[in-house]
Design goal:
With 97 residues, the protein is of the alpha+beta class. The chain has a domain of 67 residues. It is built from 2 helices and 3 strands. The protein has a 3-stranded antiparallel sheet. A hairpin with a 3-residue loop joins β1 and β2. The two termini are 28 Å apart. 0% of the residues are buried.
Length: 97
Amino acid sequence: MNMQALMQQAQKMQRDITKKKDELNKKTFVGTSELVEVTFTGDKKLVSVNIKSDIDSDDKEIIEDMFVIAVNDAMEKIDKETENVLGAYGSQLNGLF
């Protein structure tokens, strides 16, 4: 296999991976427990929280919103630290991790 064919194959694989990653990011995933239901997108962004309990509805909405903000903040910190630790490799892998 010549170098040009190898590069074309690598570029096709990169496009395929990017397409699959985009498809995954658009999906939603619901996690449940006895009292809480959470919904995430495939790129690990928290979309919603539902507390299944008899709490005053105004308090319940505030708690759910604060939960979303806190989880997404933690996820962003994980992403930043991952980029700091593995950043040199990330540019080579085009952000696949």
